[in-house]
Amino acid sequence: MTRPPQSRGTVLAAVAALAAVVTLVSTAILLGTSAGTTGTAGAAGGRVGGPLASVRTKGASPPPAPAGTWTGTWAAAPAAAEPRTGRRGLAGTSVRNVVHTSVGGTGVRVQLSNLFGNRPLHIGHASVAVAARPGAAAAAPGSMRRLTFGGRPATVVPAGRATVSDPVPLPVAPASGLLVTVFSAVPSGPVTLHPHARQLSWLARGDRTEDGDGARYTTRTAYWRYVTAVDVRGTEAAGSVVALGDSITDGVTSTVGADQRWTDHLAARLREEPGAPRYGVLNEGISGNRILLSNRGRSPANNPSALDRFDRDVLGRTGVRAVVIELGVNDILRRPQQLDPRRIVAGLRQLVARAHEHGLPVLGSTLTPFGGHLGVVPRQETVRLAVNAEIRAGRVFDSVVDFDRVLRDPADPQRLLPAYDSGDRLHPNDAGYRRMAGAVDLGVLGGSLRVGPGL
């Protein structure tokens, strides 16, 4: 049977329709879906290797996620309720947090926390953008993205909880700056913050969430507020490693704005050295943190102990493949002081056991020198040496990184080597932090580190 001739217009219409179908299919393949990126969990909840713990926001379907695997690229432990924010919080203020990625990707999602709040946090708008230059409040042209929560620009985070944004397509380079901005018009009570950011962020009056030029951000701040994690989606990173620690992991005394924490140097090694595992590095250090005790005076306690926060700050992070623990010094130094080394070792073993329950191997560090630090007495050095003896004997962690050995002064092993001392006889300087990162065996992180038999 002979077909009737088709007009040129009919042919062009058919071609256009086919092209539209191809475009839709290609877009679906590229972006994938975001199923499972939000869910309900307690403040300490979360799944190893899965999405961040969050509360679900009702509303429209979230936008599609970029293709690839989700990996944690940055994190900061929620550490305390900000002083003098007990009633109004930061109502009417845009908070622009400057954070530094460890690995890159083609899409982003952000976790915002109200852990230390005592009432719901009403987020009116939030955004993410690539910083125009290191430490700047201005966004790189074309990089500003509005964050949504269940498809809506506003959300409410209950007291003691966290929420995760919908994924947004955004090319993010490794070792680059991101701007995470949050605005609330409603008094929300105590602000959840990380006080020792070693990075300057920005504040502006009014809703300047999507201002790209940054001109209205005239107030600098040394805190990270609300934001506690950033994930990227891509094909290069194979997971993430969490560093759980105290002020030495937090990077206290490192150069502000220069990303000189030992975890930053570790991230650089993982990106650059041949054969290194391509892991993101998540810094979960809190200045003053202890294994056994949280700070007193409020509920939830400021500066929660490592045992109290392990589920949230380690197991709740995305794509975790290994844990590095650097803790114990504050248990010895801070009042009430723990002078029984057996209890400190027992606490470390509990952390290791919790990691093992989720199949995570643990690389643990020896306790670094503090001789000459204000108020230190000989009995405390005895406790430190006893804990280190157990660690070096292989009776605590799956593997050991000997931060004590690489930082101490060979002529006076109770003290930091002067070249690595920030000046307070406790915290390393930038060179010391670099030396710490250099001591980590990347081969151990990359595959030879195995879960032990149950220490």
From TrEMBL:
Xref: CDD domains: XynE_like (cd01830)
Entry superkingdom: Bacteria
Keyword Hydrolase part of the UniProt annotation: yes
GO molecular-function terms, A-Z: hydrolase activity
The name this protein goes by in its record: SGNH hydrolase
InterPro entries: GDSL_Rv0518-like, SGNH_hydro, SGNH_hydro_sf
Keywords in alphabetical order: Hydrolase
SGNH hydrolase-type esterase domain location: 243-435
